[in-house]
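Run log, item B.
One chain of 649 residues. Sequence copied directly from the ordering sheet:
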Amino acid sequence: MWVRWPRAYTGRGKVFDTTGVLVYDGPLVDGVYEGVDAKVYRSGTLVYTGEMAGNLYEGQGRRIDPDTGIVSEGQFSKGFLEGEGQEFFPSGALLREGTFSKDLLEGEGAEYSEDQILLREGTFSAGLLHGDGREYTAGGTLRYEGQFWRGIYHGHGVLYNTQLGVRSVEGTFVYGRLRGQGDIYHPSGQLLYTGQVCGERPRADAFLGLSLLEVEAAFTTHWQLYSCEGITAFVYPYFNLMFVTESPVSLVSPTQAEEEAQRERQELLDALEQPPPEDTEAVSSGAENTKTEDDETEGAAPEEAGTAPNPPAEDGSENTPSTDGEEEMTAKVYATYAAPVNAGVQEPTFYEDEVLSPDTDKQDSIITQVLSYGQPLPCVAQPENDFVSGRHHPGWREWFSDFAAGEAVRDASIRQSGQFIWRFTPWTPAQADEYIDELLTESAGVEIMTVRKEDKDMSLWYQTAMHKRIDNENGGKTLSAGYFDFSAGFPTRVCKVSMLGADIQEAKGVFKLSPEVVLAKDRIALEGQYYYMNIGRHALPSYKAQGVYGLLRGLLIGDRYGYSHGDAGLATPKPGSLEMILGYNYTDANCGKAGIFGGVSNDYSVTLNYYINKYMLARLRYSYTDVRNSDVQHDRHVNTIQARLQIIF
């Protein structure tokens, strides 16, 4: 009946607003919406179908949100979804299902993406996981399984490697962060560590004051041992950790021990085979009748051979044998005693099978320092491993850190003496000074950079020319004239082909100027750099070269760009980010006044980077490179397509 009711009405009817727009179609009791098969409209759009009571949704129904298009189906109470129910995307795909209270999941439930990928499941409270549950990635891979508190990891749980589908860490989470006791696993699934954790790494400072025995009990992998002048570090490369002890640590070589035991046995056998001592006359008589090669040494005095004089006889007189017997005995004693002295100095024997002595009491090896190398770790000191300057000699911290990180080690020699053992021997001061003198003779330089937070201002660099040590006519060494040798290849690592090159002789030094800029706004970033180089030469025109590059970067998938204070530039995008980079690079290595033609290059590139995780990067790059007027390459242009999977170890 298409009328506006002036008074209370009971029965089925329709209700319109004052403008004539339909707001209700269904049963009425004294003018109140109440009954089944009711329909409620908002601005002429259907928003609810189902049971009503007291003008409110009550009972089984279907509600449509006019703003989001999300559909809610199930039991309603006082206008809210209450009890078992489901919610759907506007497309009809399932969004949520489970037990609801006041339109929010309360109890067992699950949430899905529009592609019907399970995102969360478990016990909910006020629409958030609260209790036991599971969380998945947008691709449907299990990320976390365990306890939640208001949607945050809190309590015992397991965090998974979403790339490989294996568990990564397990333990107690506190407000989303792993703390306290926990287990850490290798991507292969092998258990690596059980103990105190901080984030997804061992809480290494918890081992200070503990023993090597307790360290070994926490880590399942074998340590590497670095030893230097009474300092011993037990290194776990996977975690970039060193546990240092100053307690005595004994190393033994089974091969050396066996050789020494064999030598002692042989000396004992030789001693047992010696003839019994004879009286002087018997020795003299035997010496007269026996001629040996030892007779050539007759006439040597006992004192010169290092022998003791004959002891006095029992009656107090000197025990003096006959002259002939004395000469024979002297010659034989001298030959036996002097042979080792005259032998050449034997080179020390190095063994390569050293192990920790079985007699070592690991309970007495106390950890006094814990160092992290390669990357900072909360609550743990990090050794300095920057390039040394002047005459500063680094110590064992820098040597251990550089060697473990795969960097060059200065001022110390390193020898592997066992499968897991390396010995560090410091250079003498003379050796270190000689190395630094030679390094500074070959070249020396200084670089100055000023940096602001949002961009890089300027980099100034001066370096003296390089020199070679060459043989002179007198058989000695002299330094060659100063030189620089610059080259650049086509932008590919597969086949290294030079495209630019300049050999500058009679050089004095090089001055470089390199202003840079880095700008970022949300998901767009711009990087650019101009570089200028001027090489002064002896009695010859200076050589000058310059270039410029620019990169326009954009995140197709991912959050906004961040800033890295350590690198004074853009931070690495988060895992799961997809980045596109448009690049241009121009280099002019030609200098007509100097008569040097290194070439001119223009390079255009398009790059796609997908950041799989913090250790892996997938890259696809196309570049067009044009080279002209180069002494090392004929004029040509090259199209290059490269794909790379980059893994950081």
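Observations after the first pass:
- The longest strand covers residues 540-557.
- The longest helix spans residues 254-273.
Flagged for discussion on Thursday.
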